[in-house]
Write a structure and sequence with these properties.
5 helices, 122 residues, mainly alpha
Length: 122
Amino acid sequence: MIKILIVGLGGFGGAIGRYLITEWANRLLPGKFPYGTLIVNLAGSFVLGYLAALVLRSEMAPNTRLLVMTGFLGAFTTFSTFSVENLQLFQNGLTGQAVLNILMSVVGGLLLAYAGYEMGKH
């Protein structure tokens, strides 16, 4: 039961963080492009990559892993939202923006996960 509470607490923080960053990005960069989701996915990919390296080095307690990686980052990253927003871009005839968002999110996420992982190994 304690593990569920730990994940839930992390998820609470991650969801709030995601909301705040998305709202900030929408105010800063208005338009139809989902900048907030892109920022959250890229940042989440980097942090998760970094933390994954720490786990491999056994530098993270299991409950901390549940709190941060499963709870916080699980709620913070938004690939389900990413999918729906891209679907809406396609449906609204904004194919170029949809393709750009997909490429930037996937390629950028992989590159930043790798960068975070490499940083975490040292």
